[in-house]
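Input chain follows. Return structure tokens only.
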Amino acid sequence: MIKKVVLCFVMLLVLIVRFPTEIEASNIANLDFVETDIILMPDGKAIISYTVRYNLVPGKTMLAFTMSGFDRINPVFDTDNAVVVTDDNIPYPIDIVNLGGGDYDIINSHDKRLGGSYLTYKIRFSADMARAGYLAKTVADDGRNLVVFNWAPTQWDESMEHYTVTINYPLEFSGDSTNREEVEKFLLEHDFATEKWMNQQYLIDYRTVTIDGVLRPQVLIHKEGPPSYYNFEIRQYIKENVFAKISDELLNIDNTQDLDNTNSNFRERNHTYRNDKYSDRKVLFAALLFLFVLTFFAVGKKHRSIVKARSTLDQAKWARDDWEPPKLELATFRKDGSIAKDLNAIEIALLVGIPYKNIFSAILSGLIEDGYIEEISLEPLRVNQIEHSDPALTLNEYELMVYEAARNGEFTESQIEAILKKLVDSVQEKTWDCDIEASRKYYKDKIKETMKNQGADPDAMEEATGETAGEQEELDRDWDWSVVDWVYWYHNYDDGRYRRGRRARPMLGRKRSALFNRYDKSVLDISDGIFSNSILNSQTGVFACHSACHDACHSACHDACHSACHSACHSACHSACVSGGAR
């Protein structure tokens, strides 16, 4: 029997070598990145989003690609908000066609081929993760009742620049601040843990995100440069009562009966390959070789692949902290002419391009002048927080964060970074579907108009500086007057409730320059390069589409689906359970 199997395999191998296939990888587009977002609900349901970017081959246009590997999930697509966005931020509708067998064609509506440098597809659907078996009960060594989230996003038929997954747990964050350490501490209080091998394979970060007005903890899992057919396996644990609305019947579903039981930190999965015109000779050869090996073992011994999600946490470990949070490039999704009109003065500053060091310095100088903080020394920067009964009544959220950060007498890099992150996240959330350039112009005009109406026309303000003509010329060379305009407006005429009754002071002139840049150097010294490396360096990156419901990306996938033998046979006879195939 074994000899016959070997003989058949050799004959197939000869045919492959003698008649090489003409099947090649797509010459239309190459996968750039996939970003996946899953919003988990207390009842085990989820909102899952994909953001998939393809880089087009110069001169080529793209029509469609295929998504597969949904396994036990029955996706309900949000077809009204399914779009493809071109590199000039123009969205086009797409059609999602059910091909059967868990395969879906993602096609540009009206068969419209689109060109440019890249295309970004945005797809969202709902799914019942508990009923599908990806959330299940387990018990820790010490008897704690937990739920394991044992899942993986879809595999892709190409390598990519990065693959990122964000998981939003159904908890309301109540930490003292939103920095990484506080989010980590909060999750630990809910018995959160992850497998040791995940810390070895991925970069992991802990964040917060506002969803439907609720601040949620978010776990970000990042993989740089995953190869084709990469299995992005995820296994995390959290306290059972986090999913209190899931019935016991659903939580007891055996969701891992088809997995391979090993003690390794990273399970090698059986890759399936697409048997169509987008596969190449290497793929076909590897599939046959894999099938041969499995058949060989099947002849000698019947193999059944069974595993249970770990009921102990002996290898659970927290994430590495020796890395920089990844710089994510999320696709924009804008409406021409739409204005983001609900920004406050600090958020406006970020939108119009004011450097963060100037924003922080302006906030700090205002708090000092208003008697909330006292400057003790400039170099190094030392301050004293002055007690107030209820500062939240008069300060906006960013001023309040700076005020609270001053409690210990000095500012740390993590505090400054937390304020920056909060600011960026808020602006992203409020501007995700707006025309950024139109919004910038709107606020710049608003600042100038307000100042002019208050008798502080920026075009005539040099008369109030008290400088000589030569000194004024020097100031024009040294100062960024767009920064000065904003700081003057922020300190005097911003119409927010926290600004009423504040100071009305001249802003310009050498004698007053400290009011907007006095603490610039101190902030840079503390931050140790955070600004030069932050996402603020990319105007596109800052205002990338970030809303949890419209952005990021997600997928239901091929985790824990078929036994090894079944997968191999399936891939040999049918299209693989992977996504891709740009055409």
